[in-house]
Design goal:
Site-specific recombinase XerD, DNA binding, three-stranded antiparallel sheet, mainly alpha, DNA_brk_join_enz, hpI Integrase, Chain A, DNA integration, elongated, 2 domains, CB
């Protein structure tokens, strides 16, 4: 049997050359793929007693990859969607290996033949218009931080942006002359232009003036930033939302679900546009979906909601500091993975 290429070298080339230079993968994709291989290293260490510097492509068999995926789901409590996301990263790597190491083509093809696991479809969670309004009303606009948060969450809702798209915004992303638009970069660095309503633009103008983001030379500064002048993070924005959601829940518990996250603002905007009669094609363009079939999930959810409301009407009238893992301790491969993203 022909010798295998060095796993560490191949993996490094996969990230630095294939993903970054050839595919132009986004930072989020790089981080997601990195995390997958970190988990893979941990799995082989725990179950095959293989340290990262001894890990070889020869052990990357279909059977071992399937066991790894099951380990993610059973031992690490990953959901089916997360399991599938991890497998997608691995499949991308082994597709890459087909071209890089065709001598072992059958081995790589075997791994790529693994099917995505089917799971129960999740309920589409979103806030009502009243729920969004109630949450935003909890923000104290008399403080500088409050005004930032009000502008930020209003923009997150009004644009239907993904949270990373919001984080990556700068003053240069906004066209301040009419018609007002904002430039968002989504998955795969795909650009889309989303119109801004006048009220949203007035809020943004006041915010940028207060934070001196409207002066020359600050066009590339993060639009929303922390006390250290750095971009806000996904967990940071999620914390801000949960804080105001907890306040709103005390007042209107039926409007605010127990679990809430930034992506729920995106779902809410899409549902409200659909309910207002906006065509799915336009909603697709606003959200940045490649296919309208992705956007149709909102139409299906809305139809289900209407059916349930009609059924209910017959019986109910009314308004109703983490532990250091073994893989983190030393080796070049581990340091490389940790340095990504």
């Amino acid at each position: 049997m022909k010798a295998y290429k060095d796993f560490a070298e191949v993996l490094q080339d996969f990230f630095t050359i294939y993903l970054v230079k050839e595919r132009g993968a986004s930072g989020n994709t790089i981080k997601s793929y990195r995390d997958t291989f970190v988990h893979l290293i941990v799995y082989f260490k725990e179950h095959h007693k293989l340290d990262p510097d001894r890990l070889s492509l020869s052990v990357m068999t279909k059977d071992n990859i399937l066991k790894f995926l099951d380990w993610l789901q059973n031992d690490k409590s990953n959901s089916v969607s997360t399991r599938n996301q991890r497998y997608a990263a691995l499949r991308s790597f082994f597709n890459y290996m087909m071209y890089l190491d065709p001598i072992h083509m059958s081995q790589w093809k075997s791994i790529c033949s693994i099917k995505m696991k089917k799971g129960q479809s999740e309920t589409l969670n979103y806030l009502s218009v009243a729920g969004v309004k109630c949450l935003l009303e909890q923000i104290d606009s008399q403080t500088r931080t409050g005004r930032r948060n009000l502008t930020m969450l209003s923009l997150l809702y009004n644009t239907g942006a993904r949270v990373q798209e919001l984080i990556d915004l700068s003053p240069a992303s906004i066209r301040r002359s009419k018609p007002h638009i904002i430039e968002l970069f989504g998955k795969g660095r795909k650009k889309r232009l989303v119109p801004l309503e006048d009220n949203m633009m007035h809020l943004l103008e006041a915010y940028m003036k207060e934070h001196r983001l409207d002066i020359p030379g600050r066009e590339q500064h993060p639009l929303f930033y922390n006390a250290w002048k750095d971009k806000l993070t996904n967990p940071g924005i999620a914390y801000i939302i949960r804080k105001y959601a907890a306040m709103a829940r005390l007042l209107e518990p039926e409007l605010i679900p127990e679990k809430i996250n930034p992506h729920m603002f995106r779902h809410s905007r899409a549902m409200h546009l659909l309910q207002a009669g906006v065509n799915l094609i336009y909603i697709r363009d606003i959200l940045g979906h490649v296919s309208v079939q992705t956007t149709e999930v909102y139409a299906r959810a809305d139809s289900k909601l209407k059916r349930e409301a009609l059924k209910k009407a017959y019986v109910d009238i009314g308004v109703t500091e983490p532990e250091v893992k073994s893989w983190e301790r030393n080796t070049k491969l581990k340091e490389f993975l940790k340095g990504l993203g």
